[in-house]
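Please, is this right?
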Amino acid sequence: MTALEDISDERVRQDTKWGQQDHLDGTGRHTQPLLADTATGIADDDEAHYIRDVLQGRTVWRFDGMADRVGTWGDILLEEVFEAMAEDDPIKLRAELIQTAAVAVAWIESIDRKLAEAMNRRLLTTETPMPELQKCDDCGRDRTAADVDDYTPMQAITGATLGWYSGSDGEFCSECITRLMGWANR
């Protein structure tokens, strides 16, 4: 079999096991997927096998709904990348890379579904609600395609525009989280 055939077969296995998956992307200009923090403890000089183990645990934690935020495609792909990075056996490495590529394809398929859904609702504009239909818990506004950036603490530290906040304590649009942060820091 060729690599592309193996990736296609892995996609079938993933769909059989998990069904159609449509997660948030977890990307954006301010995304810090390996930020050293108390939740992960990952540091820049950690070895791949350690990062793999931490990311596996973090992904399960986020998808179980017990985490700082919901799990994303970015979480899943990073976990797969570090599973591959931790392998030194060429046969196991190839298998992990097939899984990594299949996750990337699944993510692309999810993006395509979201775009098709938005296009079916009319033209994709910055006012088109995103397919996930997240709502700000404060003002009730739907999250739209204009709300592409997720909130990160670094935005607040550097004075950058705050992104959409998603956490166990709620969903907040950029405007509301900015107002709430201003109120909390008086």
Remarks:
- The two ends are 63 Å apart (CA to CA).
- The first helix runs from residue 3 to 18.
- Residues 128-186 form one domain.
- The chain has two domains: 3-120, 128-186.
